[in-house]
Design a protein that fits this description.
By secondary structure, the chain is α+β, with helices and mostly antiparallel strands. The chain contains 4 helices and 3 strands, in the order ααβαββα. The model has no long low-confidence stretch (mean pLDDT 77).
Length: 125
Amino acid sequence: MVPQRYKDQYSTHIKDGQEQTFAAMVSAMDEGIGNITKALEAAGLADNTIIVFSSDNGANVGCVSHVTASNYPYRGGKRSIYEGGIRSPSFIWARGRLAPHRQTLSFTSLIGCPLFGVLLVCKGS
């Protein structure tokens, strides 16, 4: 479920109800993440925080009647062993811990791939 105020933002230009809900969920998540980062800033903790976002699988393609996602250029999707099913978009937010003038690191992770090495780089070890 997503609050109606988020769905209302998309009611005029997205006609499909499932797509409206998905777009609304992304907006709600974006706002929530913004609230978290603002709270970290206000508490003076942003420079000592690493935030990791990762999905559990590729997009759900070929399994449902209405597809609104793509794993291009990879083949397959959720519930498959092809690259499109085991790779997922991910990113790390770690201000001051990555390359100069960079706050985020975007990458494609493999399901089950340990992030320990990446986090050690962010930590500075």
